[in-house]
Amino acid sequence: MINTTSQRAPGAVKAPGTERHFDRKGLVQMTLLGLLLILPVVAYFLGHLYYVNLASRITIIAMAAVGLNLAIGYGGMVSFGHAAYFGLGGYVAGISAYHAFDFTPFMSWPISVPGSDNLLVIWLAAALLCALLALVIGAISLRTTGVYFIMITLAFAQMIYYFANSWPTYGGEDGLPIYIRNTLPLLDTGNALTYFLICFIGLILAMALTSRLMKSRFGAALTMARLNDVRLATSGISPYPIRLVAFVISAAITGLAGALYADLNGFVSPTVLSWHFSGELMVIVILGGVGRLYGPLAGAVLFVMMETLLGGITQYWQLFLGLVLLGVVLFAQHGVMGLLAGRERNE
Amino acid sequence: MSDAVLSLHHLHKRFGALHATNDVSLDLRPGEIHALIGPNGAGKSTLIGQIAGNIRPDEGSVHLAGTAITSMSVAQRARLGLGRSFQVSSLAEPLSVMRNVMMSVQALQGHSFRFFKRVSRDAALLEPAYQALEHMQLSHRAWTPVFELSHGERRQVEVACALALKPRALLLDEPMAGLGPEGSAKLTELLEVLKREVPILLIEHDMEAVFRLADRISVLVSGSVIAHGDSHTIKQDPRVREAYLGDSNA
After folding, report:
1. Whole-structure pTM value
2. ipTM of the complex
């Protein structure tokens, strides 16, 4: 008969395989993180600051890609405009430092907003402003899907690119220098290793947030929005607000990475707002493995290493990048992480 | 009509010159299976779309448990208690059966903006989902990915998803389609028991199942309900025999 509802002890229904265990995937992930942490420390004590900064660069680009991966990989929203958030984050750091350096207010009416060289203030402002921008862009873009979504996100990002390009107050196309790296209480952010560790913690937090998010109810709904939004709606959950919130979080993470990047380089220019950079972030996500937690990190390592090593040999290094991308797309659809760590298991 | 769980009042839908739904009124009462049959092109899909919320009617209204749902979205209707299954099953294939069913439980509890608690340890989601599966005699497949399931099992999962919503009414769109005799018989058996808990509006081609299950039958031809009654009345109705059944089936 149908009413077979048995009496079970609370918590008797369990998903199989939710216990933690160490396997090939865990080994690859720990190796990747371990090397990223240890190599810069070694380089620092050997006096090779260049390599410390290179590691910071990889870490920041990886963090930006973690943000994009939340939209593309987990949410199925192929944003071709994430440079907008990366760039906005960078300009927040640049503009704030500019006013702090000049002792001029960023805004004097209706409220007075001074500049600040405090990184905590800058990061908060960058995350909030990027979230706000993504709320507006996402609210409009998410009414479309597929190619239209790609194009509309690109169009918004290009608008912001040209705006920054033609705004002389903050350097226009020449960009805006940050003369002294923005500061944190008690820490010397000017020290290359300290700054690397700050970036590293940022990356870890972004990945931990993504991981936790995707295991929650929100993540379950986002996954369903990606796999079958008809099922999600039929279940009684509207896909649109779920996607929009994911898009906003994604943008905030990428924006924070942008702020870190501006301070690493001591410079921000419209280059980081251009569609080339949106494309590079997409390439990194695809290289590493779409929708894989460690995919953006693997992709960023590969991308920046190729850029640095091959770029030192030939200015046509992107030809080789193209070949690698071709290989990944054709033969390893789950990216480098899929190749090294095996396929992701769905429970 | 007063105690109807789901009722349609004078629905009209036109696509250009085609009058796809022409003044359709019907209702679904507690404890019954109301079957909607009709030949291909009769406008069944258009009518289902208007009940489920994918299509807006030009005129008329749809009520669920006394609430007008005519202008509500698919998700809003589902939350109000309209469960449905699809002609071609619509599930997230890579995910386990449980994950699919848990989505409905989550919607019912209305907490999708929870960002930290792990779903895989959330008894408030797991238990009701598992119960819905037990109800459809499918709990042994709980952690199997949907793509490994047979056609019939997928139908059962869809019904379980609908059941997990604790629905007031079920809208089943050709649940027997593509099932073998065995699967069809099993589902028929399950629905017979189920109707005591939730009234079912059944759209079905399988005449054997319809005549066995349905308490009332409405026949839709060219957008209009041309006949209405129990299976005996419908079998005897000359217009229905002409339009749909054909003499050999009578």
Report:
1. 0.92
2. 0.90
